[in-house]
Write a structure and sequence with these properties.
818 residues; alpha+beta; Immunoglobulin-like; eleven-stranded mixed β-sheet
């Protein structure tokens, strides 16, 4: 590049990006030559190389090699191999165009940069022309960064576990897993590093996944107005561009790339009761007894670190829990699974017969200092050692530690403190030069492994449980994560506080995790730190009932958080919220299966279904639960009525025929404690069941279908039901039931139909009760499969028709003649 041109670029760099750009960054210059490959190109620029190739349909991979050599290390996150896609490469004097699946990467030659455009020529994402990709050699590796143009009307979502508003625009974030005790809305970073975001503008979406495990950062306009950038303190500039155009397509492609959440055990979608800590054994039994006596549906009780002897993982304090195995069995007999915390810090306890330490030492499983000595850090048991999870043999050793607990009947495991948190370590973790051993005999410093360490812990747990109990779906809960951790574990938002602020913060955090692939997520209902007043705790139960993971948890120095602690009035409201979740379990489990199959989150921002609804681009409170239910929780202390704006189309107040149209006035909500405002899409068909006290209890009576009729010829009317045994992997062999539903509302007749798409499982129900909402006039007749039936009911005040379809799993059609 000519000197005058470089001087101009340098001036522009300083003006646009500030001192960071002038502090030694080395930027790509012009393209020297282009190597064609079957799936893309490698462009030479001096000693540097830039690779742009089509990885899969709608997915491009961009890599920079400053020294001309691409890193061959496999990704911890990416599971999707390169798919054969028809690729076309066109060259001009100004640019090289790589086209795949209707999307093009345009590699500009001078200066060398990459733009992505759709089939209509619309620019989706473009490098900032004055800021070519750059690197900066340093003492501990090479820093890398890329700058992109940021349209003034574009919005940004994702990055996993991040506080503050759902829309990331106007803020900057770090990716560095951290034990963020008592985090707040401004705290960054938090416990997880998921370097993936979605850009959305005018209903058109794309995604970017920056696959770099070092400490990294994302800036959405704080360094320079109109510029977004991302980069890392080490490692490669290696990112994936993921086309839409719908946000849902971006998520589907991203989760295909990094893996999807396995179908969870059904019980894990039930209500879960926890505390730091329930001890001794008599206290655990008392909580279980209270849950059943108060008729609070529940499926799990958690045991925090106090069940262990001296806080040493994989031990049991027999003084406090003399009948530990019998207790687990008795809880199971009451329909309550036991989830045990198993932190990864193994107590440093030589010579005392501590099996986890002794076996790990024999297996050379623990991380060592650069001088070869054991790395020892302080955590809950005092001095502790840490498994080297980067080694597959160590992950196998760790998985084997669950053998005794699995034999005792424990159902789930909770991997906490796995950022890793080290009380006396620099920055609350391990020294950054601590080496981790790799399977190929090389080592990596902790500065590179830190962000994936928690995911590898969860992976070791998940894979170990599969080895021990291959027919049973594992349930693992992890606090720390990297992209792809959804393949192994559910998660939660860590040590929140008992405040209205944190109640409101719950929704954007969980929506962000869902958009980032981690759909099975929840928070500590009631707040982990502090004692919530009764009305706050009630509101949290009412919101938590619509979270994918519904766990009530609190710290040891707080007042009790259980549903019954504030008297009958609040108990009734909290019970009603939990009961509604259990009645919706067929709908929820169907949404969980959709997530496992497509990556679509259970808890969704409105724009995920309605990408053109720009009014919801910055809505941090309201969300969709599955595809058809709209939740508008009360998350503050207001006493006056407030407005709720509905998504596009028509909506019913759930369980009623009261109908609203989004284009009209907002719905006014009375915020005094009552049920969370819930709406069903006109055209929704919602499967439900009779109330049970736990998911192992067989619901009485028929399957229930709530059908919210649309206007004639307007909204799409459909629904779905998925069922299997909820416990094993039999569904992989076809042992599942899938039913699709459809309805229509015409002037003369309203109809509902069921079609069995796959019949490989016999459900608990043998009949279906259909309730059709929005039927003001008594029908002249009701037909099932063309034959008039008796026994149907019309409720004029409720504007409903109710009937029963007998015959179990089969295709059927109901017609209501006007």
């Amino acid at each position: 590049m000519k000197a005058t041109h470089w001087a101009l670029v340098a001036a522009l760099l300083f003006a646009v990006a500030g001192p960071a750009a002038a502090a030694g960054w080395r930027h790509l210059g012009d393209a020297d030559r282009v190597e064609r490959r079957p799936d893309g190109v490698v462009v030479h620029s001096g000693t540097a190389r830039l690779e742009v190739r089509v990885h899969a349909g709608g997915v491009f991979r961009v890599r920079l090699a400053p020294d001309g050599t691409f890193d061959a290390d496999p990704s911890w996150a990416v599971v999707q191999g390169a798919e054969p896609v028809r690729v076309r490469i066109d060259e001009t004097r100004a640019a090289v165009r790589v086209v795949g699946d209707g999307v093009a990467a345009i590699v500009q030659r001078s200066p060398l940069r990459v733009d992505f455009v759709d089939g209509n020529g619309r620019t989706l994402l473009a490098d900032e022309a004055s800021l070519p990709l750059a690197w900066l050699p340093g003492e501990h590796g090479t820093r890398v960064r890329v700058w992109k143009s940021m349209p003034e009307d574009e919005h940004y979502y994702g990055l996993g576990d991040k506080a503050g508003p759902l829309d990331r625009r106007g803020r900057a974030f770090a990716m560095w897993n951290r034990d963020a005790y008592s985090w707040q809305g401004h705290t960054d970073p938090l416990y997880k590093s998921i370097p993936f975001f979605i850009g959305l503008r005018g209903g058109i979406a794309y995604g970017v996944f920056f696959d770099n495990t070092h400490r990294s950062s994302f800036d959405f306009g704080t360094e320079s107005d109109g510029v977004l950038s991302f980069g890392a303190e080490g490692g490669a500039l290696d990112y994936y561009f993921i086309a839409g155009p719908q946000p849902a397509q971006v998520i589907e492609r991203y989760t295909a790339l990094t893996g999807r959440t396995p179908l969870p055990p059904l019980w894990s979608l039930g209500f879960q009761q926890s505390r730091y800590s329930y001890n001794p054994e008599a206290k655990v039994r008392e909580i279980a007894k209270q849950l059943r006596e108060h008729r609070i549906p529940a499926d799990a009780i958690y045991l925090d670190i106090d069940y262990q002897k001296g806080y040493a993982p994989f031990t049991v304090d027999r003084a406090q829990f003399p009948g530990f195995e019998r207790m687990i069995a008795d809880l199971r007999g009451e329909g309550l699974r036991t989830v045990l915390i198993t932190d990864l810090h193994i107590k440093h306890d030589p010579g005392n017969g501590y099996a986890a330490f002794d076996s790990g030492l024999r297996a050379d499983a623990f991380i060592r200092n650069p001088d070869g000595s054991l790395y020892v850090g302080e955590v809950w048991p005092g001095d502790a050692v840490f498994p080297d999870f980067t080694l597959s043999r160590v992950r196998g050793w760790w998985g084997g530690l669950y053998r005794d607990f699995a034999a005792m009947g424990a159902a789930g495991y909770w991997n906490d403190m796995n950022e890793p948190a080290v009380f006396d370590g620099p920055g609350g973790t391990m020294p950054l030069d601590t080496p981790h051993r790799m399977d190929d005999g090389t080592t990596r410093e902790h500065r590179e492994i830190h962000n994936v360490y928690g995911m590898l812990n969860a992976r070791a747990t998940y894979e170990g449980l599969l080895e021990l109990q291959p027919a049973r779906r594992p349930f693992v809960l992890t606090r720390a994560a990297y992209a792809g951790a959804q393949r192994y574990a559910a998660t939660w938002t860590g040590d929140n506080t008992a405040s209205w602020h944190h109640l409101a913060q719950s929704t954007p955090n969980l929506l962000s995790l869902g958009l980032s692939g981690m759909a099975l997520a929840g928070d500590d209902v009631g707040g982990f730190i502090g004692s919530p007043p009764p009305d706050l705790l009630t509101r949290w139960f009412q919101l938590g009932a619509f979270n994918p993971v519904f766990r009530n948890h609190a710290a040891t120095d707080t007042r009790p958080h259980e549903a019954w602690v504030d008297g009958p009035q609040h108990e009734v409201l909290r019970r009603e919220a939990i009961e509604l979740r259990y009645r919706l379990m067929p709908y929820l489990y169907t949404a969980a299966e959709e997530n496992a199959r497509t990556g679509m989150p259970i808890m969704r921002p409105v724009f995920l279904r309605y990408p053109q609804a720009e009014a919801f681009y910055s809505n941090d409170r309201d969300f969709l639960f599955g595809g058809d239910l709209f939740v508008a929780p009360v998350v503050d202390e207001r006493l006056d009525a407030h407005a709720v704006s509905l998504p596009p189309g028509a909506w019913y107040a759930f369980g009623t025929s009261q109908r609203f149209v989004a284009s009209k006035e907002p719905v006014r909500i009375d915020p005094r404690p009552s049920r969370t405002p819930l709406y069903a899409r006109a055209g929704a068909i919602v499967p439900m069941q009779a109330l049970v006290q736990h998911t192992g209890e067989v619901p009485a009576g028929p399957l229930e279908l709530q059908v919210y009729l649309p206007e004639a010829g307007s909204e799409e009317c459909r629904g779905a039901l998925y069922q299997d045994d909820g416990e094993t992997f039999g569904y992989r062999d076809g042992k599942f039931l899938r039913v699709t539903y459809a309805c229509s509302a015409e002037a003369a007749v309203a109809s509902v139909s069921a079609q069995v798409a796959h019949d490989g499982f016999t459900p608990w129900w043998s009949a279906t009760r259909v309730t059709m909402f929005g039927v003001p006039q008594r029908p002249s007749a009701v037909r099932v499969d063309g034959r008039a039936i008796a026994g149907w009911k019309h409720d004029a005040s409720a504007k409903t028709v109710t009937l029963e379809v007998r015959g179990g799993v089969r295709d059927w059609t109901v017609e209501v003649l006007r």
